[in-house]
Amino acid sequence: MIKGILRATVLLPLITSLVFPQHQAGGGIVYGDEIAVLVSAPNGWVLDNISGRSQGLHAVFYPVDSSWSKSDAVMYVDIAKLANGQNIMQFIEDDVQRFRKRFSNLNVEAQSNLFTLNAQKVEVRHFTGDEWGNHECVGYAKYKRSVAIYVLSARNAREFKAALPAFNKLITESVLSEVKFKEKN
């Protein structure tokens, strides 16, 4: 049992006002052991921190007129840790191999890299070929020994194409930052 109360200290030098202007609602922070990802809902999308909890997701996005369970296109942000000695390209390849074990017809295409608001490079991959015809785009951003993972999942090519600008905006308007946990005295 951990004694005391843990307090997250996020180092964000005046970035918050740039990322979350007052006219833009639906912003939040997804945090892991050592990094935090500041995100905001793209125009026309909702940030929901409740609907994805049963799946271990604390920041899910879907169009304003839909829901997490019913939308034809959804997005989420998560954080994972690199294994000891693993680099970002190995992490991505491991992710691809996990998908290939499940879907033998999987096609994976590297897309143009994107960059977060604070210039962190995001490697982007487009996944197709599962048994349901889904399209997914996954962005991977290494920060320290962690990886911020951005996901767009759509039920078909048309919905994917329509949601891709919002996914790109989710990434390019996000900020990765260090998190330090301290035990409160």
Describe this structure in words.
The protein has 185 residues and is α+β, with helices and mostly antiparallel strands. The protein has one domain (42-171): Protein Transport Mog1p, Chain A (3-Layer(aba) Sandwich), CATH 3.40.1000. The chain is built from three helices and twelve strands, in the order βαβββββαβββββαβ. The strands form two sheets. Strands 4, 5, 6, 7, 8, 9, 10 and 11 form an eight-stranded antiparallel sheet that branches. β10 and β11 form a beta hairpin. The two termini are 16 Å apart. Mean pLDDT is 85; it is low at 1-24.
Instruction: Examine the secondary-structure arrangement and name the CATH architecture.
Output: 3-Layer(aba) Sandwich
Name the CATH superfamily assignment: Mog1/PsbP, alpha/beta/alpha sandwich
In quaternary terms, these chains amount to single chain
Q: Which CATH C-level class is it? A: Alpha Beta
Q: Can you tell me the number of structural domains?
A: 1
Structural class: alpha+beta
Shape annotation: globular
Q: Which H/E pattern describes the elements?
A: EHEEEEEHEEEEEHE
The fraction of residues in strands falls at 35-45%
Q: What about the largest sheet?
A: 8 strands, antiparallel
Mean pLDDT: 85
Low-confidence stretches: 1-24
Outline the secondary-structure elements.
Layout: E1 6-10, H1 16-19, E2 27-31, E3 35-40, E4 45-48, E5 60-63, E6 73-81, H2 88-102, E7 107-110, E8 114-115, E9 121-128, E10 135-143, E11 146-154, H3 157-172, E12 175-183
Antiparallel strand pairs: 1-12, 2-3, 3-12, 4-5, 5-6, 6-11, 7-9, 8-9, 9-10, 10-11
